[in-house]
C-alpha cells in the first residue's frame, strides 16, 4: 500500500508539473533578474549569485529559477568537487523563501525588471520549466564557462534572440578570468592563494564582456546597458526598472591578522630559512639534509596534488600550470635521490641545478598575486645554490650533509 501511495503521489506531481510546463502566461506576467551580492559564509558565496524570477499575478505564479544547487551529501563529494564533476542542478523557489537567509548573511539583493514580449516570456518560462524536469535539471558545472550566472544569461539571450543587443558583449575588458576572480578574493588571502596556485594558464585568457559574465555582477551590469527591439521596431532599454530589495550594510570586515597573511608568513619563512642556510654553511660548513628533504618534499607533495588537478579536471582551468615549475612533483622522490648517503656531487649538481633553473622560470611565468610566487621559489633557489657549492677548504661541504 505504501508503494502504491508513493506511485500515486509521483503521478500526481508529474501531472501537475506537466500542466505547469504547458501553462500559458498572461499579459500581466513579468520577468526579472535577481542578483545576490558576494558573501562571507563560504568560498562558494564569494562571487555572488544570479536567478531568474517569473511572476504572473493573474495565475498566482512567483518562481525563482536558480542554477546554483548542489548536494553536500553526494557520494564522493570531495573527489567530484576537485574533478569538476559534482552535479549542479536547477532549483525553483519563491524569492521570499530565501530572502531572510540573504539578509541574515548581509548579502545585497537587486532586482532588474526585463522588457520581454509575451511570446519571449512564454518561451523563457517554457524553457526553464523544461530544464527543471528531473531528467534535465542536472548539469556539469564549470567555474568560468558554465555556472549559476552564465546559465541564466544564456536562457535570457536564447529567449530574446536577435532582438537583444548587449553592446559590451564583444568589447575587451582589459582583465583576464584570473583578474576578475581575484577582485572578489582580496579580503580572503588564503583562499586567493590556494585558488591561484590551482588554476593554470587558461585562467590568464583575456575576457570580453561575454566571458566576464561568468560573474553575477557582470551579468547585472551588462544587461543594464543592453537594448531590445520591440515588435514595432522601437529600440528600448532592456532593463525597465532596477531596484534594491535589500542593501548590504557597510560593516567592518574582520581582516586576517598581519602575521597570518600569506605574504607575511612566507616572507618570514623565507628569511628564516635563508638566514639559517647561510649561517650553517658559512660558519659551520654544513648543508642540512633534513631541511632539504622537508622543504622539497613538501613542494613535491603540493606539486603532485596540482598535477592531479590538472589531469582529473575536465574544464581545463587547472591545465598548463606554471606553478609546477617550482612545485615540481618529482621533487618527491628525487630529493632523496639527490641527498642520499651515496649521492655524488654530480648527482646533486644535476638535481639542484635543474631545480634552480625551473624556479627562476617559474618566477617569471607564474601569475599568483602577492609575493608567494617570488619568495617561495627564491627560498628553494637559495637551497639549490648552497647545495651546488664546491668543496670549501677545511671542510667536506657539500659532502658533509647532516
Largest sheet: 7 strands, antiparallel
Q: Within the largest sheet, what's the order of strands?
A: 6-4-3-2-1-5-12
State the total count of DSSP E strands: 12
How many helical stretches?
A: 14
Anisotropy-based shape: elongated
Helix and strand run = HEEEHEHEHEHEEHHEHHEEEHHHHH
The structural class is alpha+beta
Roughly what is the average pLDDT, rounded to an integer?
A: 88
Q: Which residues form runs of ≥5 with pLDDT under 50? A: 1-20, 391-399
Computed over alpha carbons, the radius of gyration is: 28 Å
Helix amount, in percent? Answer: 40-55%
- Strand % is 15-25%
Distance between the termini: 76 Å
Summarize the structure.
The chain is α+β, with helices and mostly antiparallel strands and 402 residues long. It has 14 helices and twelve strands. The longest helix is centred in the C-terminal third of the chain and has 24 residues.
Account of the protein in words:
Residues 1-20 and 391-399 have low confidence and may be disordered. The chain is elongated and about 85 Å long. The strands form 3 sheets. The protein has a 7-stranded antiparallel β-sheet with strand order 6-4-3-2-1-5-12, with helices on both faces. It has a 3-stranded antiparallel β-sheet with strand order 7-10-11, with no helix packed on it. A two-stranded antiparallel sheet has the order 8-9. Helix 10 packs parallel to helix 14 and helix 13 runs antiparallel to helix 14 (372-387). The protein is built from 14 helices and 12 strands. 46% of the residues lie in helices and 16% in strands.
Amino acid at each position: 500500500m505504501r508503494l502504491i501511495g508513493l506511485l500515486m503521489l509521483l503521478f500526481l506531481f508529474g501531472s501537475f508539473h506537466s500542466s505547469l510546463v504547458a501553462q500559458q502566461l498572461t499579459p500581466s506576467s513579468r520577468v526579472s533578474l535577481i542578483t545576490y551580492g558576494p558573501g562571507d559564509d563560504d568560498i562558494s558565496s564569494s562571487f555572488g549569485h544570479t536567478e531568474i524570477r517569473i511572476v504572473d499575478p493573474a495565475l498566482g505564479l512567483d518562481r525563482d529559477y536558480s542554477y546554483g544547487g548542489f548536494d553536500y551529501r553526494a557520494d564522493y563529494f570531495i573527489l567530484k568537487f576537485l574533478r569538476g564533476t559534482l552535479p549542479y542542478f536547477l532549483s525553483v523557489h519563491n524569492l521570499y523563501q530565501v530572502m531572510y537567509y540573504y539578509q541574515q548573511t548581509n548579502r545585497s539583493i537587486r532586482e532588474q525588471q526585463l522588457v520581454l514580449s509575451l511570446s519571449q516570456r512564454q518561451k523563457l518560462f517554457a524553457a526553464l520549466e523544461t530544464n527543471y524536469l528531473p531528467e534535465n535539471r542536472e548539469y556539469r558545472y564549470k567555474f568560468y564557462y558554465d555556472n549559476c550566472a552564465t546559465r541564466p544569461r544564456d536562457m535570457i539571450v536564447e529567449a530574446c534572440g536577435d532582438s537583444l543587443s548587449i553592446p559590451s558583449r564583444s568589447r575587451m575588458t582589459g582583465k583576464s578570468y584570473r583578474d576578475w576572480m581575484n577582485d572578489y578574493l582580496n579580503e580572503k588571502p588564503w583562499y586567493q592563494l590556494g585558488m591561484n596556485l590551482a588554476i593554470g594558464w587558461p585562467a590568464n585568457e583575456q575576457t570580453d564582456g561575454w566571458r566576464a559574465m561568468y560573474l553575477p555582477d557582470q551579468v547585472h551590469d551588462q544587461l543594464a546597458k543592453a537594448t531590445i527591439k520591440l515588435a514595432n521596431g522601437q529600440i528600448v532599454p532592456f532593463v525597465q526598472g532596477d531596484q534594491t530589495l535589500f542593501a548590504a550594510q557597510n560593516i567592518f570586515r574582520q581582516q586576517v591578522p598581519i602575521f597570518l597573511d600569506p605574504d607575511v608568513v612566507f616572507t618570514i619563512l623565507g628569511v628564516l630559512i635563508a638566514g639559517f642556510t647561510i649561517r650553517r654553511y658559512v660558519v659551520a660548513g654544513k648543508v642540512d639534509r633534513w631541511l632539504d628533504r622537508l622543504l622539497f618534499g613538501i613542494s613535491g607533495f603540493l606539486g603532485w596534488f596540482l598535477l592531479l588537478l590538472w589531469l582529473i579536471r575536465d574544464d581545463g582551468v587547472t591545465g598548463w600550470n606554471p606553478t609546477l615549475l617550482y612545485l615540481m612533483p618529482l621533487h618527491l622522490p628525487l630529493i632523496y635521490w639527490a641527498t642520499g648517503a651515496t649521492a655524488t656531487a654530480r648527482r646533486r649538481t644535476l638535481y639542484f641545478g635543474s631545480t634552480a633553473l625551473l624556479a627562476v622560470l617559474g618566477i617569471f611565468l607564474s601569475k599568483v598575486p602577492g609575493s608567494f610566487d617570488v619568495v617561495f621559489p627564491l627560498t628553494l633557489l637559495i637551497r639549490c645554490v648552497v647545495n651546488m657549492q664546491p668543496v670549501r677548504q677545511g671542510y667536506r661541504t657539500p659532502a658533509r650533509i647532516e
